[in-house]
Write a structure and sequence with these properties.
This protein has 589 residues and is of the alpha+beta class. It contains 14 helices and 18 strands. It is rod-shaped, with a radius of gyration of 68 Å.
Length: 589
């Protein structure tokens, strides 16, 4: 978690969280208190409506009893009884029909009154209960037009009963009058049957719990999913319930305002936290960020000055860090310089040791090979000389015969053996050379080139020279031989002709440099380390035994010089001889 985020988190905990918690608590307390207060007021309204409903039913029963008591109903029968019953029927506008069991039924249609449901009245009238108690109120039932009717029964005397169907339309009007300003009032039974309502009401399962005797006032969810604050009050002993409800957002509007105020102040607190956090982050986190970048640069070996202008603890830390970083970079530079110098010295010493070891190994191999060559030359010289003489005599005696060609071949191979023996002797003699003298090196170069002038002309090789007058110290004949072997090797590399470049110059007056370049096919990289080994050759001619470059290398090293080769397969090959100048007073070993 970044430092900037931690600052914002702390500010949020200090500024936003308390405001949010206090706002939430205030909203919860206000909502609970408001719900209790509004619920109590709705409960009072429901109780008043319940008493009004109870009075209506009691007045209906009492009015019907008084009207019937003043009429001589016991003395009349037939049509006279029906005519007399019209008097209370017309006086009591809430009565839809009057019926005497076993007698006539009185009702009227077409005068604005609803059509009575005589069959339902006869079925639901509580006659047995009226015979016992004198007055009885039955269970309300629904007419075919959807309106609710209430059956009431009276006992006239021991032999006569009277039943009336009372319309509950007046109660519906009362419920409609109570349903004002977003309030809904309706009358229902405990079983959930609606008796009086201002509009079509569908009772939900949550409302049935309220009707069944739940808390007097609470929030219920209606069938359309809306939440209402409802209060219920029973209507006497009739088993009816008056419900007064109001939409929750209307009833608890002050609590919603408290929540809006809370959200507003939480938003204000959040804005203040963001502004303050931004200011603190620029003051605190930016210097810390620069310090972090400086540490990262220092880890990469770079010293980056941390620009912090403050005079507080962070500024002091930045200045101390800059001093430390500069000192660490300086020490790292010194250590790298020392390491590089030490590595150069180690590499130089290693190269010197490797060169010395190679020279020792080469010297041992050459010494052994020289001893072997001297012995072989001594042992082979006399037999080869005798063989060559006998072959010459036989060729002279058998001249003109078929055996002359065979003897010529024998004589050539004997001369080849003599040449090999001579090379072996020359190779072994390099170890026994006496100290040389001062001589003209350019003369030895020109003499070596003269030896192969005819051969170069025959092979179509063009010679280019750049030879300066130089003097060296040593044996001129051996140097000429070394140069001759190199020139011979270059001619062999160009069987189809080419260009041979020879240059001789001094190097700052201390050394002499002789370069011999040919335009042949070059030397592969894998063979350059072996070309100076005895008997190693890349030539296809059988007469080449691979001692020429070995002899040249041995002669040059005997004169305290170096024989170098620079070539690649398919490119020009250049052999370079570097010798001490005569002024350096070189001596042979």
């Amino acid at each position: 978690m970044q430092f900037r985020s931690k600052i914002f988190a702390v500010l949020a905990v200090v500024g936003v969280v308390p405001a949010a918690v206090l706002g939430s608590m205030s909203f919860s307390v206000n909502r609970a208190e408001l719900e209790r207060t509004v619920g109590s007021a709705q409960a009072l309204v429901a109780e008043e409506a319940a008493r009004a409903c109870e009075r209506f039913v009691a007045q209906a029963a009492e009015g019907l009893r008084l009207s019937a008591s003043v009429l001589p109903l016991r003395e009349l029968s037939g049509d006279d009884l029906g005519t007399v019953l019209r008097i209370p029927y017309r006086q009591l506008d809430f009565v839809d029909a009057i019926w005497i069991p076993g007698g006539p039924a009185v009702f009227e249609t077409g005068n604005g009154r609803p059509t009575p449901e005589l069959d339902l009245l006869q079925r639901h009238a509580p006659l047995a209960l009226a015979r016992q108690a004198g007055v009885a109120i039955g269970a309300a039932y629904s007419a075919r037009d959807g309106s609710m009717r209430l059956p009431i029964a009276l006992r006239l005397d021991s032999d006569h009963l009277l039943a009336a169907e009372v319309s509950l339309a007046q109660l519906s009007r009362q419920m409609r009058q109570s349903s004002q300003g977003g309030t809904l009032s309706y009358l229902a039974t405990r079983g959930g049957k609606v008796l009086a309502q201002p509009e079509a009401v569908e009772i939900s399962a949550d409302e049935r719990t309220l009707l069944g005797g739940g808390p007097a006032a609470r929030v219920v969810t209606r069938s359309d999913g809306a939440r209402w604050l409802a209060a219920a009050a029973p209507v006497g002993s009739l088993g009816w319930i008056v419900v007064v409800a109001q939409r929750e957002d209307v009833a608890l509007r002050p609590a919603a305002l408290v929540r809006q105020y809370t959200l507003f102040w939480v938003a204000v607190s959040l804005i203040l936290v963001l502004v303050l956090g931004a200011l603190l982050s620029r003051r605190v986190t930016e210097p810390v960020k620069r310090l972090r970048e400086g540490v990262a640069a220092l880890a990469e070996g770079r010293a980056v000055a941390v620009a912090v202008d403050s005079e507080d603890e962070i500024g002091a830390l930045a200045r101390s860090f800059n001093q430390m970083a500069a000192e660490m970079v300086r020490r790292d530079e010194e250590i790298r310089h020392w390491n590089a110098e030490l590595q150069e010295r180690v590499d130089a010493r290693t190269a010197e040791l490797r060169t010395a070891q190679d020279q020792i190994l080469r010297a041992r191999r050459l010494a052994a090979l020289g001893s072997l060559g001297a012995g072989m030359a001594h042992e082979l010289n006399n037999p080869v000389t005798a063989l060559t003489g006998v072959a010459a005599l036989l060729r002279k005696e058998l001249a003109g015969t078929p055996h002359e060609d065979k003897l010529r071949t024998l004589q050539e191979q004997a001369r080849r053996i003599s040449s090999i023996v001579a090379n072996l002797r020359a190779f072994s003699d390099q170890e026994r050379t006496q100290p040389g003298r001062r001589f003209a090196l350019h003369a030895s170069v020109l003499a070596a080139l003269d030896l192969y002038e005819q051969q170069m002309r025959t092979h179509g090789i063009q010679l280019t020279t750049d030879i300066k007058s130089c003097e060296a110290q040593g044996d001129p004949e051996q140097i000429q031989e070394a140069i001759a072997h190199i020139v011979q090797n270059a001619i062999a590399a160009m069987p189809r002709g080419g260009t041979l470049k020879v240059s001789l110059s001094d190097v700052s007056g201390d050394a002499l440099k002789l370069s011999v370049s040919d335009s042949g096919k070059g030397i592969p990289a894998g063979m350059r380390d072996r070309i100076f080994d005895p008997f190693f050759t890349t030539k296809e001619q059988p007469s080449r035994v691979g001692l020429g470059l070995s002899i040249s290398h041995n002669i040059v090293e005997a004169h305290h010089g170096k024989l170098l080769v620079d070539s690649a397969e398919g490119h020009v090959a250049t052999f370079t001889i570097v010798l001490p100048a005569a002024a350096a007073a070189a001596h042979l070993r």
